[in-house]
Amino acid sequence: MLTLKVLSALLHYPDESVVGHVDELREALREESVVRGERLAAIEAHLRRLAEEDLLDVQAEYVETFDRGRARSLHLFEHVHGESRDRGQAMVELQNVYRENGFDIDVPELPDYLPLFLEFLSSRPPEEALGWLEEVVHLIELLHARLAEEGSSYAALVAPLLELAGVDTDDADVRARIAQEERDDTPEALDRVWMEDPVTFGADTGDFGVRPNRRPQDVPSVEPVKWAPPRKASMGDPQ
What pTM, to 2 d.p., does this model score? Predict the structure, then answer.
């Protein structure tokens, strides 16, 4: 599904390789026609911003959106495991899923990085891709709600993923929960992160070098991901 590859590119750190191909990305979305109407218009508005605004400003906004605090992290398992040991095991399981399906990671990113996951899905048959998407949609739903709460244009890139998985993009319960969350990107919150346990190596270091510097009880209660094979039954027309 080419649309997933386009969304993967747009959710990655913006650079010349993306900005220089805005027209091609727009045309790919229109041609496949999986995303339509207001959803497509919102993505195209984001594409226009990429083409028209100064690249350094776009990059600064991206960092401010995704790299300050953990609430809007593009690493999916941050939203369920934080940096507990369980995240390391989930990473191993997801990496195995990639390998079993002939997908090798050749970029310096962890397996749960959403753009990487979407690129993997884009290489799978549509029904299978939607099955895998459903496995993590509850995590993507949290990310979308937090982006929408901030009024971020990046919410428009995540909303189609929810719709493809059959999830409401404006769930009142989710919005209420997000509205009550304590911000983790304020100077005070970031200071608390730096005051956590120092980096250690060896026996206390989890898989993929993940250190348990965020205790499991600090992570909101979210259902863990179980990597069951995607269901094979027909999911209907993804459009």
Answer: 0.75
